[in-house]
Amino acid sequence: MKRILYLLVLLLPVAASAQKLSESAVEDISTKMAAQFLKLNDPALVFVTEQMSRSGSGGLEVDKTMQDLKKDPAALDAALKFLYQYSDCNRQTLIANLRAMNVNSGNVFPLATYIVNNNKDESKALVEEKAELYRIGAIPKQISVMVAPPDNQNQAAAAGAVLQGAPPANATGVTPEGSTSAASPAKETINTAAGMPVDTRNWDVRNVFAMMKPDQLLEFYGKENVALRDAVDFEGNDAGKAWVVYPDTENEMEVIFYKDSTKAVTFSKEESKWRSPFGIKPGDPIDKVNKVNGRGFRVNGFEWTHGGTVDSWEGGAMDKKGVVILFRAVNSGDPKLYDKFTGEKKFSSNDASLKKLGVIVEKITFRTYQ
């Protein structure tokens, strides 16, 4: 019996360490993933980066996160999970992908073991999600430059503008330093098939997060597609000037550049095609925001100061990520029910009654920080 206890004492530290990566392994995989990311055409890293953006695991400026994963353990774990997902949750395929990234041979098997053990319970769901993402086109199977053409695609198509021979990119269209891609001008990105225009515009909001000044916005989306207008905050107060991309269309996006190099990107159109962090967009029900946040959160009562805005994410996935959401109730015809959520009070997003009110996202702002 004493011998068994002695063996357990020896084995427990080994078992515990199996769930933790060494500093050299963390440094190695972080450096190698950054190198592959900067190539801008590596299918595995395109997939990982898209998933980091969709899930919000990479924060608002996911390009910066991908270049220094070792500084954010949670982001590194998420990136490794998505690499495992890209590998079809198959250990041998994962090992092959790690080797293809030139991970040091001494770190390959510890990394593979760590990744598999951390995500084995999610394997089936991850494989199914990957298949669905490819099926609906949420993640590109073929990597190509996708820059934004004019919103009036018929006019551009009639002019015969066709993108030819563009070099590959990671579907961001902006270099990691924030300078716009010179691979193709914005006016030359309409492909046609059988005479019908095909939308090749890049709807990834990450392009904007990487920009430092309005000139980059104008260059990337085209001066004819951007207007400078007065801006207001969620309560209708003056918020200065905003650059509006595709103004007066369903794809309208408002960008405010601040003097400290931070920016605010706001969406208010329900039919917008933009792909934003966390996958949240105007028109989404509050239940979806609950799921993305991973827990309930606190909302300010409607028709009051900061009415309908999130007061606290309660430590969820969107906490301290620069995400500001304004909700509205679609079905406010029941005064007794509506009064429960109005006035100087705060309510939980988990309240079942909110479904009867049809509470949805009205506006969403992503605020970047230095």
Automatic annotation (TrEMBL):
It comes from the Bacteria. Keywords: Signal. Residues 1-18 form the signal peptide. This is Uncharacterized protein.
